[in-house]
Amino acid sequence: MTVEDESAGGTAATAGSAPLPASTAMIESPCVKLCMLHPETGFCVGCGRTGDEIAGWGGMSAEDRRAVMQVLPERQAAPDIRRGGRSARLRRRAGSQARG
Question: Long-range contacts: 55-62, Cβ < 8 Å, 24+?
Fold first, then answer.
């Protein structure tokens, strides 16, 4: 079956699997396999989607997915200001141990 067949309402399948409805066979996704929600923004640091958008992606209509894809370039998954990384964590830990 070709991509044209799928767009005409056909189904797609891989060898040895049951056919998938055309509506779910080829879902475009912004996922880059770097899945972690930023604690301050709530956006995935890889793709910029919210947790709700990620969880509901497979059930969204093509129109809803396109709407999310349109706003992703405007989103900033992580703030520009760094919290200090490892060195800051070590300083905070050393400070709390000195007080404790």
Answer: 57/27, 57/29, 58/24, 58/27, 62/23
